[in-house]
Amino acid sequence: MFQKILVPTDGSELSEKAIRTAIEIASQAKGSIVGLCVSQPYPYSPLSEGAVAGDAAGFENRSMEIAKEHVDRIKEAARNANIPCETVVTKSFDPYKDIIETAKKMNCDSICMASHGRRGLNKLLLGSETQRVLAHADIPVLVCR
């Protein structure tokens, strides 16, 4: 069974389901979890044509605060279930890369994450971080829907 489970979250209701699932698995296996939230960097380059710089630092600071709140909820849920938990917050335009890299750095043996279940044109245009993790991870990935 899995001993150290990475649980990425974006704060969504589906992510909450993945958190509950990871905690349940960790409880049965007497394992632990690692909560991860990948913060979004400021999406616009002040050097690009027609872009307005805005408050990039303010945006990124708030994004990091929100990410910290998300992993704090994981830590609280784990504490309530008596499951050891570590948390990580990163910043990236490519969350799937940070998910895979964090799993490696933290010696996780599995990833438990949500899928928003986008289909058709939405999936094509927006992509799927879960799909990318599935394609590139070299450890088991449990997808919760």
Overall description:
- With 145 residues, the protein is α/β, with parallel strands linked by helices.
- 47% of the residues lie in helices and 20% in strands.
- The chain has a five-stranded parallel β-sheet with strand order 3-2-1-4-5, with helices on both faces.
- It is globular.
- Belongs to the universal stress protein A family.
- InterPro entries: Rossmann-like_a/b/a_fold (IPR014729), Universal_stress_UspA (IPR006015), UspA (IPR006016).
- Pfam families: Usp (PF00582).
What is the fold's blueprint, element by element?
Elements: E1 4-8, H1 13-29, E2 32-39, H2 56-80, E3 85-91, H3 95-105, E4 110-114, H4 120-126, H5 129-136, E5 141-144
Parallel strand pairs: 1-2, 1-4, 2-3, 4-5
Task: List the keywords.
145 residues; alpha/beta; 5 strands
How would you classify the helix and strand content by structural class?
alpha/beta
- What is the number of E strands? 5
Cα Rg: 16 Å
Please write the string of helix (H) and strand (E) elements.
Answer: EHEHEHEHHE
Residue fraction in strands: 15-25%
| Shape, principal axes of CA atoms | globular
Estimate percent helicity: 40-55%
Q: Taking all residues together, what is the mean pLDDT?
A: 89
Family: Belongs to the universal stress protein A family.
Protein name: Universal stress protein
